[in-house]
């Protein structure tokens, strides 16, 4: 096929699936530490024929024709996703070499702490498990200093991507562009969430004082630095109960009670090994759903391992459970991540159930309740942190066109929401593209609605009932087709009804 040949949507979709498979497998190899050098640019170059302006125009034309010919909503949506993927591919292709170069520089960066040289990822992973408060601050600062050295390059890349996206989409306003993709108002979402966050003020200050003291000790700063968060999040002092060794077995059994036998699903490939360059953040890479789905975690000890494994298992079961007969666009492509995060959230919520702690760790009822509250403490902290992230990102992108990207307001929002001092220059490390924070928050609202509905339909035992599994399986089968907000309607809620979320977090 010549370089200039333009594909029809069906042929584009097929070749796209091959490209995304190879790209996902490459990203996986780097992420898990099998490869030290990222070669995304090489994969992108091999498929450069997919991502041309001429191809983008052809897809836009096909979408326009489908609309005027009154094609089904599914068909129009499928073409929309193909066009937006092509658009994103052009941006990625044009920036791939610079992205690779920056990622490789970051991978090669080292900090030296107590005579030991380590990568930034290892330093980050280590900070979370150091036993001494001062050590965590010290190594955390070293790691953050070194990360901040890459800020100007990172900002230059973000700016280049933004300029290209504005040009290709014809929408110069990054907030409006995101709103069109997500099909909702980000500011309305923010307003609804700000109310929830505010109504949790009292509950949060009580949880915060109790758990900051318990987890960080009485000698802590009133307002601890950001380097203490990952350590708290692991609930490391509870690590003797929630051991690294048992994490896999307990989580697999938990899912088994819902009717999901992960070991018997060859399409979900588990990678639970410990490797020095493996990112400490758990993730799922769905290379070709439902046939090839990777579930990757790096257990370090503590309740967080269990929560992270259950969270990622929710994604894996979603992608691995979609109907193979769906078009590729509805198995693998989505407008955003807000749908799949509902399923990871509902799965991870199991660690907030006292009964789960009693059952697996033979704890007396009172201890089980306390430890489940620890899970809730983390969830309220993260929820408020994400509302603050969304608020900062709306400000960041709102002023981006006339001011460029700046850190203004980042640390202030985080401090007010969490009582933790974040470094202003951490703002880029803390920001994912495309308002991912909003997707998490939509999933927070929806998974609380889902749990409320399961409590109603299945009962208190929802977290260990095969009926829950059956209901989830029927949702998974639809793949990535529905929007997060469409699930609200299935559950009988309005999209922005935050009452279940407030009830759950304020409990
Ligand atoms: Zn997730």
Quickly list its features.
2 domains, two-stranded antiparallel ribbon, mainly alpha, 22 helices, 5 strands, binds zinc ion, three-stranded mixed beta sheet, Neurolysin, domain 3, 507 residues
Can you describe this structure?
By secondary structure, the protein is mainly α. It folds into two domains: 9-108; 186-505, Neurolysin, domain 3 (Orthogonal Bundle), CATH 1.10.1370.30. Helix content is 62%, strand content 5%. The protein is built from 22 helices and five strands. It has helices at 9-31, 40-46, 53-68, 73-108, 120-127, 133-148, 151-169, 174-182, 186-199, 201-216, 229-234, 247-257, 303-320, 338-348, 354-361, 365-398, 400-403, 410-418, 436-457, 466-476, 484-491, 499-505, and strands spanning 110-113, 116-119, 268-271, 283-288, 292-296. The strands form two sheets. Strands 3-5-4 form a three-stranded mixed β-sheet. A two-stranded antiparallel sheet has the order 1-2. 42% of the residues are buried. It binds zinc ion (ZN). Residues 311, 315, 341, 344 line the site of zinc ion (ZN). Zinc ion is lined by residues 311, 315, 341, 344.
Task: Record the SSE blueprint.
Layout: H1 9-31, H2 40-46, H3 53-68, H4 73-108, E1 110-113, E2 116-119, H5 120-127, H6 133-148, H7 151-169, H8 174-182, H9 186-199, H10 201-216, H11 229-234, H12 247-257, E3 268-271, E4 283-288, E5 292-296, H13 303-320, H14 338-348, H15 354-361, H16 365-398, H17 400-403, H18 410-418, H19 436-457, H20 466-476, H21 484-491, H22 499-505
Parallel strand pairs: 3-5
Antiparallel strand pairs: 1-2, 4-5
Helix pairs in contact: 2-4, 3-4, 4-7, 5-6, 9-16, 10-16, 12-13, 13-14, 13-20, 14-19, 15-16, 16-18, 16-19, 19-21, 19-22
The structure holds zinc ion.
